[in-house]
Amino acid sequence: xxxxxxxxxxxxxxxxxxxxxxxxxxxxxxxxxxxxxxxxxxxxxxxxxxxxxxxxxxxxxxxxxxxxxxxxxxxxxxxxxxxxxxxxxxxxxxxxxxxxxxxxxxxxxxxxxxxxxxxxxxxxxxxxxxxxxxxxxxxxxxxxxxxxxxxxxxxxxxxxxxxxxxxxxxxxxxxxxxxxxx
Length: 182
Known about the structure:
The chain is mainly alpha-helical and about 180 residues long. The chain is about 70% helix and about 0% strand. α5 (about 125-135) packs across α7 (about 150-170). The protein is elongated. The mean pLDDT is about 80.
């Protein structure tokens, strides 16, 4: 370690530790976080001499490292479960599969068909508005220009069209298995 780095460490070590402790609320995690911070500081030691406010620079590194750890833990926890000692299922069955199953594909096609049929029962102005927004994926401003109305009118039409479509889907007793009131 060079002399400048040693000086920075001696001066700010306690400050970084207390900041880490405040962020993690756990002494062991604070020590781990502090170690990561100092590893990053050592990695970028060449830039220390160019930094005007060392304390602010160290605080930024600490905060960013904490955020990165937090995001990493959140991502990991989405895919991990509290595992019992013995698993009754193979571990690979617990890993989420991003592929859409055949049943899901068929269901999606069926629902799309049903929604399109109900859309055709709407007034033409509502059909067009829904089509432009959801199928063609035009912005509200583009739809406003196309239909020669204000953006507020487009928003109102979208709201009314969705409400009417939902009403129609819920009223159809044949679709009771597919459409759940929300």
